[in-house]
Amino acid sequence: MIIVRNLTKTLNDGQTVLSKLSFQIDKGEFIALIGASGSGKSMLLSCLALREKWTEGTLIVDGTELSHAKWLDRLKLLKEWALLEEKPALHPKKNALKNVFSGRFFQVSWWRRLTGTMSTEEHIRAMDYLERVGLLDKAKMLPAEKLSGGEQQRVAIAKALAQGAKVILADEPTKGLDPESSSKVLHDLRELCKTQDIIVVCATQNLELAERNATRIWGLKEGKIVLDIPARKLTQREKDMVL
Predict the structure, then answer these.
(1) How far apart are CA 171 and CA 157, in angstroms?
(2) Domain extent at residue 220
(3) In degrees, to the nearest 5, what angle opens at C-alpha 32 toward C-alphas 28 and 33?
(4) Which of 56, 84, 110, 228 is most buried, with most CB under 10 Å away?
(5) pTM of the predicted structure, to 2 decimals
(6) pLDDT of res. 108
């Protein structure tokens, strides 16, 4: 469970981009975060991932307050939370299998980190994660040369799973993808929530996919959550509130 109280983010120029956000997220939830460009979606995900410092607010994860936590507790959060950016963070010279294996950085011995070699067990584990996102046949392919944008995002999801992610924060993971690839990426994320109790918070401007795949929809406007409802088809009034 994630509890956030009064999350506020103010920039150096005095502009407040997130204003006193408070919410609770339970295991297995898939939250679609919608809002116009500049509404604060990316900043919210970056703050949750601790990539951006909070100006004010409290973060409680499974009963542990991390706002003033010891560095070991914060390190654990960084290991168990994955931020999927719009452009997948994959190594261009490593094939899909090795990119997934790189997610195991904290779980393997130091000499395997240096050499990039996989044990038989780790090889099987990485293949298993690729299979979960339907890309077992793409294991030996390089991202930029052989994989489509949607396939690269699904490799990034497999990498997050290999990392041991219990929370996935996805920032516009379907932007620029064709409709079929977009649907597959969000379907994969939804299935992870259902089968593994993973929490997903996904920023998207594709309302149809949000309505179809999420369990909950947040609408963000001017740094505030103005809509928080169980996922369903949005009314025109609700769309006007957010977009």
Answers:
(1) 12
(2) 2-242
(3) 130
(4) 84
(5) 0.86
(6) 52
Amino acid 140: pLDDT: 92
The answer to whether the CB of 199 falls within 8 A of the CB of 166 is: yes
The reported pLDDT for the residue numbered 10 is 95
Q: 3-state SS string over 215-226?
A: CEEEEEECCEEE
Query: What DSSP letter does each residue of 142-204 carry, written as one string?
Result: -HHHH--HHHHHHHHHHHHHHHT-SEEEEESTTTT--HHHHHHHHHHHHHHHHHH--EEEEE-
Q: What is the DSSP letter of 137?
A: G
Residue at 22: amino acid letter = S
Phi-psi region of 11 (alpha: psi -120 to 50; beta: other; left: phi over 0): beta
Q: How many helices (H) and strands (E) does the chain have?
A: 10, 10
d(CA 187, CA 150): 12
Q: Are 215 and 52 contacting, i.e. CB atoms less than 8 angstroms apart?
A: no
Which of 106, 100, 105 minimizes the C-alpha distance to 133?
A: 100
pLDDT at 132: 83
pLDDT of residue 114: 57
Residue whose token pair is 């920023």: 203
What is the distance between the alpha carbons of residues 38 and 196, in angstroms, rounded to a whole number? Answer: 32
What is the domain-level CATH number for residue 130?
A: 3.40.50.300
CA distance 123 to 162: 11
Residue 75: per-residue pLDDT:
75
Q: Count up the domains in the chain and report the number.
A: 1
Over the chain (243 residues), the average pLDDT of each successive run of 10 is 95 94 97 94 93 91 77 75 86 90 64 61 85 89 86 89 89 87 89 92 92 96 96 95 89
